[in-house]
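JOB MANIFEST
job_type = single_chain_structure
chain_count = 1
residues = 228
[input]
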Amino acid sequence: MQEMEQVRTAIEISHVGRTFPTAGGSFQALKDINAKIPKGILTILKGRSGSGKTTLLNIIGALDAPSQGQVLIEGKDIARLTERQKDNLRRKQMGFVFQAVSLIPSLNAWQNVEFSLRMAGIREGRRQRVEECLKMVGLGSRMTHMPAEMSGGEQQRVAIARALAHRPRIILADEPTAELDSAMAAEVTRLFAELVEKEKVTIIMTTHDVGLMDAGGMVIELENGEQK
Protein backbone atom coordinates (compact mmCIF):
# COMPACT_ATOMS: atom_id res chain seq x y z
CA MET A 1 0.00 0.00 0.00
CA GLN A 2 2.82 2.43 0.90
CA GLU A 3 4.62 1.70 -2.39
CA MET A 4 1.43 2.34 -4.38
CA GLU A 5 0.91 5.65 -2.57
CA GLN A 6 4.50 6.63 -3.36
CA VAL A 7 3.87 5.89 -7.05
CA ARG A 8 0.91 8.30 -7.03
CA THR A 9 2.65 11.00 -4.98
CA ALA A 10 5.11 13.31 -6.72
CA ILE A 11 6.07 15.41 -3.69
CA GLU A 12 5.56 14.80 0.01
CA ILE A 13 6.07 17.74 2.37
CA SER A 14 6.38 16.55 5.96
CA HIS A 15 6.50 18.93 8.96
CA VAL A 16 8.59 21.46 7.04
CA GLY A 17 9.77 24.57 8.85
CA ARG A 18 12.25 27.23 7.81
CA THR A 19 13.94 29.66 10.16
CA PHE A 20 16.24 32.48 9.07
CA PRO A 21 18.68 34.25 11.38
CA THR A 22 18.08 37.98 11.87
CA ALA A 23 19.86 40.78 13.70
CA GLY A 24 17.35 40.44 16.53
CA GLY A 25 17.40 36.65 16.74
CA SER A 26 15.48 34.60 14.16
CA PHE A 27 12.49 34.70 11.83
CA GLN A 28 10.33 31.63 11.21
CA ALA A 29 9.24 31.83 7.58
CA LEU A 30 7.53 28.41 7.55
CA LYS A 31 5.92 26.47 10.38
CA ASP A 32 5.02 22.77 10.19
CA ILE A 33 3.87 22.55 6.55
CA ASN A 34 2.43 19.20 5.45
CA ALA A 35 1.11 18.12 2.05
CA LYS A 36 1.09 15.23 -0.40
CA ILE A 37 1.07 16.49 -3.98
CA PRO A 38 -0.13 13.87 -6.49
CA LYS A 39 1.61 13.33 -9.80
CA GLY A 40 0.23 15.02 -12.86
CA ILE A 41 -1.83 17.87 -11.41
CA LEU A 42 -1.64 21.65 -11.23
CA THR A 43 -1.22 22.69 -7.59
CA ILE A 44 -1.80 26.31 -6.60
CA LEU A 45 0.30 27.54 -3.70
CA LYS A 46 -1.59 30.63 -2.65
CA GLY A 47 -1.22 33.41 -0.13
CA ARG A 48 -0.36 37.05 0.26
CA SER A 49 3.13 38.43 -0.30
CA GLY A 50 5.29 37.37 2.62
CA SER A 51 3.20 34.29 3.41
CA GLY A 52 6.10 31.89 2.73
CA LYS A 53 5.12 30.67 -0.75
CA THR A 54 8.47 31.36 -2.39
CA THR A 55 10.40 29.94 0.57
CA LEU A 56 8.45 26.69 0.28
CA LEU A 57 8.88 26.58 -3.49
CA ASN A 58 12.65 27.08 -3.10
CA ILE A 59 12.80 24.17 -0.67
CA ILE A 60 10.83 21.93 -3.05
CA GLY A 61 13.20 22.95 -5.85
CA ALA A 62 16.29 22.05 -3.78
CA LEU A 63 17.39 25.70 -3.90
CA ASP A 64 17.09 25.88 -0.10
CA ALA A 65 16.87 23.35 2.72
CA PRO A 66 14.30 23.14 5.51
CA SER A 67 15.31 23.87 9.09
CA GLN A 68 12.88 21.17 10.20
CA GLY A 69 11.07 18.35 8.45
CA GLN A 70 11.69 16.99 4.98
CA VAL A 71 10.58 17.11 1.35
CA LEU A 72 10.43 13.80 -0.48
CA ILE A 73 10.39 13.73 -4.27
CA GLU A 74 9.27 10.31 -5.42
CA GLY A 75 10.33 8.95 -2.03
CA LYS A 76 13.78 10.59 -1.83
CA ASP A 77 14.67 13.18 0.82
CA ILE A 78 16.13 15.94 -1.35
CA ALA A 79 17.92 17.62 1.58
CA ARG A 80 20.11 14.53 1.86
CA LEU A 81 21.30 14.72 -1.74
CA THR A 82 24.79 15.99 -2.51
CA GLU A 83 25.11 19.36 -4.23
CA ARG A 84 25.89 17.59 -7.48
CA GLN A 85 22.81 15.39 -7.13
CA LYS A 86 20.67 18.46 -6.40
CA ASP A 87 22.06 20.17 -9.48
CA ASN A 88 21.25 17.13 -11.63
CA LEU A 89 17.75 17.01 -10.12
CA ARG A 90 17.12 20.65 -11.05
CA ARG A 91 18.64 20.43 -14.54
CA LYS A 92 17.09 17.16 -15.64
CA GLN A 93 13.94 16.50 -13.63
CA MET A 94 12.65 19.99 -12.86
CA GLY A 95 11.67 23.06 -14.83
CA PHE A 96 11.48 26.57 -13.39
CA VAL A 97 9.34 29.54 -14.39
CA PHE A 98 9.86 32.79 -12.51
CA GLN A 99 8.12 36.15 -12.29
CA ALA A 100 11.04 37.67 -14.21
CA VAL A 101 11.18 35.59 -17.39
CA SER A 102 14.99 35.91 -17.69
CA LEU A 103 15.14 35.13 -21.38
CA ILE A 104 18.53 35.63 -23.02
CA PRO A 105 17.96 38.91 -24.90
CA SER A 106 20.44 38.10 -27.70
CA LEU A 107 18.67 34.84 -28.58
CA ASN A 108 15.33 34.46 -30.33
CA ALA A 109 12.47 32.37 -28.93
CA TRP A 110 13.62 29.16 -30.62
CA GLN A 111 17.21 29.60 -29.43
CA ASN A 112 16.13 30.37 -25.85
CA VAL A 113 14.20 27.10 -25.66
CA GLU A 114 16.93 25.11 -27.42
CA PHE A 115 19.49 26.44 -24.93
CA SER A 116 17.62 24.72 -22.08
CA LEU A 117 18.00 21.38 -23.87
CA ARG A 118 21.72 21.97 -24.21
CA MET A 119 21.93 22.70 -20.48
CA ALA A 120 20.11 19.42 -19.74
CA GLY A 121 22.59 17.52 -21.92
CA ILE A 122 19.96 16.48 -24.46
CA ARG A 123 21.39 16.05 -27.97
CA GLU A 124 18.90 14.04 -29.97
CA GLY A 125 15.66 15.44 -31.32
CA ARG A 126 16.30 18.99 -30.11
CA ARG A 127 14.88 20.79 -33.14
CA GLN A 128 11.67 18.79 -33.12
CA ARG A 129 11.19 19.20 -29.36
CA VAL A 130 11.80 22.97 -29.45
CA GLU A 131 9.25 23.45 -32.21
CA GLU A 132 6.79 21.14 -30.46
CA CYS A 133 7.02 23.12 -27.20
CA LEU A 134 6.70 26.54 -28.84
CA LYS A 135 3.65 25.35 -30.77
CA MET A 136 2.23 23.92 -27.55
CA VAL A 137 2.33 27.38 -25.94
CA GLY A 138 0.85 29.05 -29.03
CA LEU A 139 4.03 30.55 -30.46
CA GLY A 140 4.48 28.46 -33.58
CA SER A 141 4.57 31.60 -35.72
CA ARG A 142 6.87 33.56 -33.37
CA MET A 143 9.84 31.22 -33.11
CA THR A 144 12.34 33.60 -34.72
CA HIS A 145 11.24 36.69 -32.79
CA MET A 146 13.59 38.24 -30.25
CA PRO A 147 12.39 38.82 -26.67
CA ALA A 148 12.30 42.59 -27.26
CA GLU A 149 9.86 42.00 -30.14
CA MET A 150 7.43 40.08 -27.94
CA SER A 151 4.78 41.09 -25.41
CA GLY A 152 5.13 40.23 -21.73
CA GLY A 153 2.67 37.37 -22.12
CA GLU A 154 4.55 35.98 -25.13
CA GLN A 155 7.84 36.17 -23.26
CA GLN A 156 6.33 34.26 -20.36
CA ARG A 157 5.08 31.60 -22.75
CA VAL A 158 8.60 31.24 -24.15
CA ALA A 159 9.79 30.79 -20.56
CA ILE A 160 7.17 28.07 -20.06
CA ALA A 161 8.25 26.30 -23.27
CA ARG A 162 11.85 26.52 -22.07
CA ALA A 163 10.93 24.97 -18.70
CA LEU A 164 9.00 22.21 -20.41
CA ALA A 165 11.41 21.31 -23.21
CA HIS A 166 13.58 18.74 -21.42
CA ARG A 167 10.48 16.84 -20.25
CA PRO A 168 10.81 17.47 -16.52
CA ARG A 169 8.65 15.57 -14.08
CA ILE A 170 8.00 18.73 -12.05
CA ILE A 171 7.64 22.40 -13.01
CA LEU A 172 7.86 25.06 -10.30
CA ALA A 173 6.40 28.44 -11.25
CA ASP A 174 6.91 31.36 -8.84
CA GLU A 175 4.35 34.14 -9.45
CA PRO A 176 4.54 33.63 -13.24
CA THR A 177 1.52 35.89 -13.82
CA ALA A 178 2.45 38.77 -11.50
CA GLU A 179 3.56 41.09 -14.32
CA LEU A 180 0.65 40.23 -16.63
CA ASP A 181 -2.81 41.74 -16.95
CA SER A 182 -5.73 39.67 -15.66
CA ALA A 183 -6.70 38.27 -19.07
CA MET A 184 -3.17 37.13 -19.89
CA ALA A 185 -2.72 35.78 -16.35
CA ALA A 186 -5.81 33.62 -16.81
CA GLU A 187 -4.48 32.48 -20.19
CA VAL A 188 -1.12 31.42 -18.72
CA THR A 189 -2.88 29.54 -15.93
CA ARG A 190 -5.12 27.79 -18.46
CA LEU A 191 -2.00 26.85 -20.40
CA PHE A 192 -0.51 25.25 -17.28
CA ALA A 193 -3.67 23.19 -16.83
CA GLU A 194 -3.46 22.03 -20.46
CA LEU A 195 0.21 21.09 -20.11
CA VAL A 196 -0.60 18.94 -17.10
CA GLU A 197 -2.94 16.95 -19.35
CA LYS A 198 -0.70 16.82 -22.43
CA GLU A 199 2.69 16.29 -20.81
CA LYS A 200 1.64 14.50 -17.60
CA VAL A 201 3.84 16.91 -15.65
CA THR A 202 3.32 18.00 -12.04
CA ILE A 203 3.12 21.80 -11.79
CA ILE A 204 3.22 23.92 -8.65
CA MET A 205 2.39 27.59 -9.18
CA THR A 206 2.50 30.31 -6.54
CA THR A 207 0.12 33.25 -6.75
CA HIS A 208 -1.49 35.95 -4.67
CA ASP A 209 -4.00 36.69 -7.47
CA VAL A 210 -7.45 36.00 -6.02
CA GLY A 211 -8.83 35.26 -9.48
CA LEU A 212 -6.41 32.35 -10.02
CA MET A 213 -6.39 30.74 -6.60
CA ASP A 214 -8.94 28.04 -7.41
CA ALA A 215 -7.61 27.17 -10.86
CA GLY A 216 -5.68 24.06 -9.84
CA GLY A 217 -6.55 20.50 -8.99
CA MET A 218 -5.10 21.09 -5.52
CA VAL A 219 -4.69 24.25 -3.44
CA ILE A 220 -2.28 24.85 -0.56
CA GLU A 221 -2.85 28.12 1.28
CA LEU A 222 -0.25 29.81 3.46
CA GLU A 223 -0.63 32.73 5.83
CA ASN A 224 2.27 34.13 7.84
CA GLY A 225 4.24 30.95 7.19
CA GLU A 226 1.48 28.65 8.41
CA GLN A 227 -0.84 26.34 6.49
CA LYS A 228 -4.49 27.28 6.54
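[summary]
The first helix runs from residue 2 to 8.
Residues 12 and 162 are 26 Å apart (CA to CA).
exit_status = 0
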